[in-house]
What we know:
The structure holds three protein chains of three kinds. Chain A is mostly helical.
Amino acid sequence: xxxxxxxxxxxxxxxxxLALPLLSFVxxxxxxxxxxxxxxxxxxxxLAGANWIFGTLCVWQWWKASAGLPGRSMVPWSFDWLTxxxxxxxxxxxxxxxxxxxxxxxxxxxxxxxxxxFVHVYSIGYMRExxxxxxxxxxxxxxxxxxxxxxxxxxxxxxxxxxxxxxxxSYQLIGFWYHKPSAVAASKKAFIVTRFADAFFLLGIxxxxxxxxxxxxxxxxSAAAAEAxxxxxxxxxxxxxxxxxxxxxxxxxxxGKSAMFPLHIWLPDAMEGPTPVSSxxxxxxxxxxxxxxxxxxxxxxxxxxxxxxxxxFVGAFTAAFAAVVAIAQxxxxxxxxxxxxxxxxxxxxxxxxxxxxxGGVLVAGYSASMFHVFTHAFFKCLLFLVAGSVIHVAGxxxxxxxGGLRTKMPLTYLSALAATLAISGIPPFSGFWSKDEIVxxxxxxxxxxxxxxxxxxxxxTAFYMFRFFFLIFHGEARSDRSHAHEDRWMTFPIVCLAIxxxxxxxxxxxxxxxxxxxxxxxxxxxxxxxxxxxxxxAATLLALLGAVAAWFxxxxxxxxxxxxxxxxxxxxxxxxxYRKFCIDEIWLFVVRRxxxxxxxxxxxxxxxxIVDGAMNLVGKSVVLAGWCVxxxxxxxxxxxxxxxxxxxxxxxxxxxxxxx
Amino acid sequence: MSSPLxxxxxxxxxLLAAFATLFLKRDDHLAVKLVHAVCHGGxxxxxxxxLVSFLAxxxxxxxxxxxxxxxHFAMDRIWIPALNIHYNVGVDGLSMLMIxxxxxxxxxxxxxxxxxxxxxxxxxxxxxxxxxxxYGTFMSFDLFALFLFYEVAVLPMYLLIGVWGTGRKxxxxxxxxxxxxxxxxxxxxxxxxxxxxSHLQTFDLNVLSQYPFPRSFQRLFFPILFFGFGVLSAIFxxxxxxxxxxxxxxTAVSMLHAGVLMKxxxxxxxxxxxxxxxxxxxxxxxxxxxxIAVNVAYGPFVALRQRDLKYITAYSSVSHLGLVLLxxxxxxxxxxKGSAMQMISHGLLTGLFFALIGMIYGxxxxxxxxxxxxxxxxxxxxxxxxxxxxxxxxxxxxLSGFVAESTIFLGAFENPSAVVRGCTVVAILSIVTxxxxxxxxxxxxxxxxLPERFGTLTDAVWNERLAVIVLLIGLFGMGLxxxxxxxxxxxxxxPLFNNLVRAVVP
Amino acid sequence: xxxxxxxxxxxxxxxxALLLLAGLAGNEKSERLAFPAAxxxxxxxxxxxxxxxxxxxxxxxxxxxxxxxxxxRQLFLFATLLVEAFARSYFRRGGDxxxxxxxxxxxxxxxxxxxxxxxAVVSVDNLLALFVGLELATIPLYCLVAWRAGDRRGxxxxxxxxxxxxxxxxxxxxxxxxxxxxxxxxxxxxVATRVASIQxxxxxxGLLRVAVAALFAGVGFKLTIFPFQMxxxxxxxxxxxxxxxxxxxxxxxxxxxxxxxxxxxPLAPALxxxxxxxxxxxxxxxxxxxxxxxxxxxxxxxxAYSSVAQAGFILAALVGPAxxxxxxxxxxLFVYAATNTLAFAVFAVAGEERGETFECLRGLSRRSPxxxxxxxxxxxxxxxxxxxxxxxxxxxxFSSAASAGHYLFVxxxxxxGTLSLYYYLHVLREAYIVPxxxxxxxxxxxxxPLQKVLLGCLLLAVVLLGLLPQLSDFxxx
Lengths: 660, 506, 477
């Protein structure tokens, strides 16, 4: 906590960044959602705008104030929330709530605040007719509050607290239209899958807290913590050194939240929620939480080559898997969902691949991943907003009902083109710069295989994005367009977001390469790789190839659009890809058949029949004994006298051992 | 004005309310309820004022280093000279918080049972007896008085469930009463053993805790006391009374029973078994942790298969109580503090759950989750409260559940032995199954299409809103600002932990 | 001026004689006066016994008023007062679905003779006088059981009671003669010294073993200990209700006094051995009593098994050291007397027309909530559940047993208490839970003023006796 007095105003009161969305949630949640439905939209948008301005001011003042500080990280505000050990003992474990500002968290604050504001503006238009909009805006503000809290976390405990709050607000928003059973099922699936990963995350936190006796990132990422973690720790069922296990457990939290394979099943279903929800949560902010967590714990993770390998492999495999599946999808939001999965795969494998084969860590990998997070946020959010307004016009999500929207929605068309060019990695747009750096860092770090996978996925990305683009905007209209128009409230944010999609790459490149350098542990030496010159050329060629192929198949003169859209009469492999390799069905089988039938049912039977049965047995046997005593008591004098005599003999025998 | 008499007034006020109800006419329901609303409301205010003065007194207190619990508002008068029984009443951090919890739940309980018509006077008199017993147990530091109040709290259960219950009420009432009284039979033997075994001829807990009982004595009598109290906390083999009992009990009774009475078991273990027989505790707990771990992991799975809402909540109580016992069984400072917090958090949580289920049952006349659906549209207030209670149950940060559970997990991991470590890992991973069954129940009941027969349901009326809001304030209060609770508990857990540590290194 | 300690005994004899004379007069006026006179007299005697001080001097060579003896006198007078107050309504209006009983004054006179026998048991110091006292306390009961003229069940019960009683008397006489054979003298002191010498190993203890066995057989009959309690259910059911109450309260107290006098008198040196025996018999008795009571539907038979079980619990106290055992037993007998009378009073009111079975209690909580409340207090006191007196009573019993180190036995006894709660709650189930048959919902219950007073006082006693320490202090002085 630097000397608070010297800090400029915005930094001293950085808590306002959290307070504004919370105020919007409480205000709207308790008051407007019942009385004045129509007021909740404007109020929360105004507060989101204020938060955007204040957030940018904070980032700017932080940029100036932290010039001299190591790693530019500072904690302008924090307080002790809960102590676990006993006050006054030598090692009390305290969990605090505060704001840690350093390059990656400042970048994320700016991104979240910006996108939150634009999505709020967009939602006013999108939710105008929806009767439950009074409930929508508070939940959106709650999400913004939780995400900002997560990003500003000074310690891993605070990050877990806001991690769960993010999970809950996404649960509420996905299941917003709760009268639809599919939305309810999707929200439950999303929460339970992320909760499954969070359990491992919590276990990781508990292990770290026990070994290192502190939650703070500064302490966790220090050399002392790494040494302490090398000692073996017993986990009840097995004994293992704490560092790799704890690092893997903590990454598992990110694995579920960022929907990496095989825990990705919840993200495509999460599209059941309203599109503004998808645009903010499932494109730019929440799903990036896993990457942010790995970046935050990068110094500790980089000391464990096995975990870095795991991250790289999971990232690369998900990127490839998602790209392949995205090609065959018919629902435009599912296409964007899988595209998000693929891009997050990119970010993670950039972090993972930073570990050079011969030891040491390539600094460029870390900054490339963060750069891609920055650029991806804008164009993916834009794509979702475009999809939202297109669905608003076409009535449903399927590609079969779209086509020929170019004339009706010119501004949306142009913005969509910008975003598609950006995501496909066509120079000079933003996607090219960040994706190129990732692939280049993979080659520099000595992972040629990963590099080529990155390039091929880049081509696939271009292909399915342009397929998405051509089938929506080009060709003849496949449903009536009488009332199609561009809603003012929805088009304004689309156009605003188009600007960063175009120029964010060029402007931010030098900033990211200079400022975003991880503070590695002393015995891990940083490697400055040489720039693999051939990568940008190869990437661009492959991207153009993908775009041309898509044009030829879906927009060109000989394009057979009807065949492109029907997924039934297709070869077996195509249908398999269309049904997302049946991963969902496998999970459903595992959970329902094995977990519910084979485990829960026998336990319930055991509880009702054996344990409960035993208690009832005791009761019944006592009642039976009572019946026997009564049967003995048949009231005849002879039995009474016989018992008396017998009793005398019994007492005499008993007295025997007493009076030898 | 924090004189000891006020503390004793806490358990006398419910008895006064019961006495006043004797003179009311049979069909004068409203008068009965008003009397009780006033009395328990007053009691709640009294409890809050006592808490405030308690916190003021322990403001700057340095951490307790001794092994004897410091009592506040203490009062010690001779009661029955023949057996040197004293009316020894006092409060430390844990007792004060539990008294506040009881006051909140009975206050909500009175408003949740506003619809009782049949023999309302008897219902409320028995409820007062139940609450007076609970208050007395939390504040008495004389073993005899504690045991007397402990059993008084069990006395009205049979009639309350038998007369005003639903479903297989007679079977459940008898089963619940007999298992709890059998548990307290063990305590009768245990308490007399402590009295005569220590040759001190006293029931005073603080004095008994300093007496070095021989190790063989402790090895024999610790399990007796542990299972005596444990039966009330639904420890694994003896938990079967809890689902049946709570499913058949009327709303206020299941609120009070699951919310507070089940904590008496954990509190008893903490205050009597571990405090007086520390060597016995450190020797037996490595073995007792296995049934406790079964408790924690076992409850959610069975709850998954249940259809009746009350059974689901009852099995969730079994699981949460398992966490309380886990916190105690690991014998670390943070663990014990965590279990104390879990007692409070689970009390609020289950109280709210049963209140809401009672209100919803009052409207839909079915507790089967499959028959209901889409209720959120008709009853937004009850729906949102149920979802909040559910999230508190599965340990969402910002609500009381998370604070307690994380403290227990952190505390449990500090115990180095492999068995305990294994149980802790199982407990941590069981938060997933907890989330599964809570969300299944909430979604199936509140979301999805609304059956037409529930088309005309009304939302909560004023007395139900008051009951729910009181408990929600408790949940959020502890969830958002856990600091003051943690400090208050430090003072009460420290002497017990020092006593326990003294046992390990004699 | 200090009253002579013998005054209560003499006054009792006078009262009994007076009542007999009133019976002889046989006219209407004396019948009506009998009950107020008897109740007034007994109350006066009770107050007298509270004022009198125990003194070591001996009357008639063997009769003295010891401190424990005085407390037992107060107990017997208290119990008899309750029985008389309870019996009046049976003689005035009848009960249990039958007509009123006749010859009230003779009934009361016989009652007082039983009382005199009980006084004798706690006052004498030689075996012969003890035997006479015991017989005086038992034989009048045979005819009281058959008091209702022409009642076949009563006659049958009386015959069983006589035959069993005769058997028991044989065992007593057999045991006393052996003790006399051993010690050469009837005096407790001499017998005690001889038993002490046997304990030290001089002379074979075969004779002593037979004497003790016969003694327990004899007292087992009167105190309904396990193998000898077979007569109790039939006699309790057959006898008219006041006599059943008399059996369960006064006769049992006398039996406990008899056992205490013997265990801490002549057989004192072998106390450790006899206590082991008592421990075993107590465990058996309470278990059989509890098991028997589970399936009962007739109230008096139910109370028979309940009193067998309570005898088991009282025996548990006798396992402790002498002073603690006597104090605990006395306290519990006071509480038991009050609780049992209260229970019988409720049964009397509820069962006046319909007969005293479980059905008469059905729907009591709706017909008369006050009576149902009193019944609940009774049942919880009998089961030993706080805050009513039964709990503190049981706690004293168990503390006396625990002081002798039998902790696990205390746990066993407490579990038996749980078993007893099972059938006591069945009574409450009838009153509160079982729905009333149609047509009988609003059967009005007639409660005459004396019964109201009795119910009120006893309710106060049962609720407060446990919480207020006065009684336990008074007994421990």
